[in-house]
Automatic annotation (TrEMBL):
PANTHER family cross-referenced by the UniProt entry: F-BOX ONLY PROTEIN 15
InterPro entries: F-box-like_dom_sf, F-box_dom
PROSITE patterns registered for this protein in UniProt: FBOX
One Pfam family named in its UniProt record: F-box-like
Official protein name in the record: FBX15 protein
Gene name of the record: Fbxo15
Domain (F-box): residue spans on this chain: 1-42
Cellular component terms (Gene Ontology): SCF ubiquitin ligase complex
Organism phylogeny: Eukaryota, Metazoa, Chordata, Craniata, Vertebrata
UniProt xrefs under CDD domains: F-box_FBXO15 (cd22093)
Length: 437
């Protein structure tokens, strides 16, 4: 029953975040909280002092100085949209500026943690069941590696697995971040869709990664690991592996319904020998189990010739079976660690692979972070230096395949990587360089 004039006077003392929150109370409050006079005042006060000198020459600030005309000639909510657009644009610019600093070792942004802290970024998942009901899961544990971040969610009140249809992964940032205080969980937030997964018939449509006494692991592309309780056939935990390449762009620059699409590559033309398919490529490879690192290696000067192109793939041989000087020992026992509120464990004979393939200019060409399982080969090692069981681990997506071979040494209780081959899709190469292999 309070007059609108009194409410507008009260609202005029609120900051932008409080105004947006008040607008969610009811229809009347929403209309009053959209008042152009209040938002014009906020917009004008947010202008940087250095704009004062050329204020009269700027069409935008000239409109601001028109007073009543700027208020009454605009539709309700106009200056609210202008204020939010200005603030979010400045925020994105500030965050993306940090991403420009590249690590010469990996070719990836080296200030990811700083950028995430500045942005107030977090990740949530939204589970949708067959009735259309959505469940939001926010509480997560983060584990940072050199080239990726692993996010773990778990809970006891998740929907039944048989009822789930889709899962959406979002990056979430404050709509109007305030550098002077931590982000408010209940304040207005912006969602950026990273990936969407279909969970119907999960155990049939996904890749089985492994199991222990309590859980069974299933993998969904890109980089999602689903842990299922064996006894109840319910979701125990969810683990997302996000590669640093374009991580912040996908987590910030997308919308709630549309994923961020990176701009196309601009190829650098050179006069390299036409017999080369790819040349002077670099590979950074990490194998880890969420909390422990098993392998961290870099390989330079990788190339393939055109005769290595067949069946729609270009082959890059990184570790040769016959060259034992490049064989790589694995530190520790391979497995993926998991935990919930009550239980924890480790599923053996699997790991998370972080692959970063850089082109001849040092630009990320093919990157992913994904769980991979190992399988015992029927063949035994014919190498003189290694007498033991052979294990294989393969990964594939739309951009290529990775084939690994391990030998288990019983005497020293360790794995040795004796072969590592990358198969890059010719479609990926053609779209990257604008060529036709």
């Amino acid at each position: 029953s309070m007059p609108s004039e009194v409410l507008l006077k009260i609202f005029s003392y609120l900051d932008a975040v409080s105004l947006l929150s008040v607008g969610c109370v009811n229809k009347r409050f929403y209309e009053l909280a959209n008042d152009n006079g209040i938002w014009l005042k906020l917009y004008s006060s947010s202008l940087h002092p250095k704009w004062t000198f050329w204020k009269m020459k700027s069409k935008q600030t000239e409109t601001v100085s028109l007073g009543c005309a700027a208020v009454h000639d605009k539709k309700p909510g106009y200056w609210k949209k202008e204020y939010i657009f200005k603030q979010t644009s400045a925020f994105k610019t500030r965050v993306m500026r940090l991403v420009k600093f590249l690590d010469p070792y990996t070719g990836l942004p080296c200030k990811n943690k700083e950028a995430m802290k500045v942005s107030g970024l977090c990740w949530i998942i939204v589970l949708k069941d067959k009735n259309g009901k959505e469940s939001v899961v926010e509480k997560s544990n983060l584990s940072f590696k050199d080239t990726s971040v692993t996010i773990l969610w778990y809970g006891t009140d998740w929907p039944c697995l048989d009822m789930l249809t889709t899962l959406k992964l979002f990056g979430v940032t404050p709509l109007l971040p305030d550098q002077s205080r931590p982000p408010n969980k209940n304040g207005p937030r912006r969602f950026s869709l990273i990936a969407e997964y279909h969970l119907a018939n999960l155990t049939e449509s996904s890749v089985t990664v492994g199991a222990d006494e309590l859980v069974q692991l299933f993998s969904l592309s890109p980089g999602l690991l689903v842990g299922i309780w064996k006894e109840k056939n319910e979701v125990a935990f969810l683990m997302a592996n996000l590669h640093y390449n374009q991580l912040l762009e996908r987590s910030i620059l997308g919308s709630a319904t549309v994923q961020y699409v990176p701009p196309p590559n601009k190829p650098l033309l050179d006069d390299i020998d036409s017999e080369y398919g790819l040349h002077n490529y670099s590979l950074h490879l990490d194998l880890h189990g969420r909390n422990c690192m098993y392998l961290c290696g870099s390989f330079k000067c990788l190339f393939c010739r055109k005769r290595d192109i067949e069946n729609g793939y270009l082959r890059l041989r990184v570790v040769n079976l016959k060259d034992n000087r490049k064989h790589l020992p694995i530190i520790g026992t391979l497995g993926i660690c998991w935990e919930t509120d009550v239980f924890k464990g480790s599923v053996k004979d699997c790991f998370v692979m972080d692959l970063t393939l850089l082109d001849e200019t040092g630009k990320p060409f093919w990157c992913f972070s994904a769980p991979v399982r190992m399988e015992l080969s029927t063949e035994s090692s014919g190498l003189y230096d290694y007498m033991g069981h052979i294990y294989t681990a393969d990964y594939s997506d739309s951009e290529g395949r990775v084939c690994l071979e391990f030998v288990w040494l019983e005497e020293t209780k360790e794995y040795i990587i004796v072969s590592l081959v990358l198969y890059v899709s010719t479609k990926k190469v053609n779209s990257w360089y604008g060529t036709n292999y």
